[in-house]
Design goal:
This protein is mostly beta strands. The chain is built from no helices and seven strands. Strands 1-2-3-6-5-4 form a six-stranded antiparallel β-barrel.
């Protein structure tokens, strides 16, 4: 079962401000101001952030802020990269979800 972005909000407490829920959902990462977009897997997410696995890029090659698109819901959200490791990055959401302006 693929979870949707609306399912990531949880009331359970943990080390983070919001509980992460496993998604393993396809998505897109794009850099504002550039047309290029990168396929990704949104590994897990919460109301405040997500862990994202990139397909072909190393996260250290990205700027501090990106846009994460959730394919299933056709929504996107602005995010700040807070950590990187190998092919994954942790992001903190810095805006509200909005309908995506780019096709998947």
């Amino acid at each position: 079962m693929v979870m949707r972005s609306a399912d990531i909000v949880s009331k359970e407490a943990e080390r983070r401000r919001a509980k992460r829920r496993e998604l393993m959902a396809p998505g897109l990462v794009r850099v504002p101001g550039y047309r290029r977009k990168m396929r990704c897997i949104i590994v897990d997410a919460s109301a405040t952030g997500a862990r994202v696995r990139l397909s072909h890029e190393h996260p250290t090659q990205l700027p501090d802020y990106v846009v994460i698109g959730f394919d299933a819901d056709r929504v996107e959200i602005d995010a700040a990269i807070v950590w990187t490791a190998r092919d994954e990055m942790g992001v903190q959401f810095v805006s509200a979800f909005r309908k995506t302006s780019l096709p998947s």
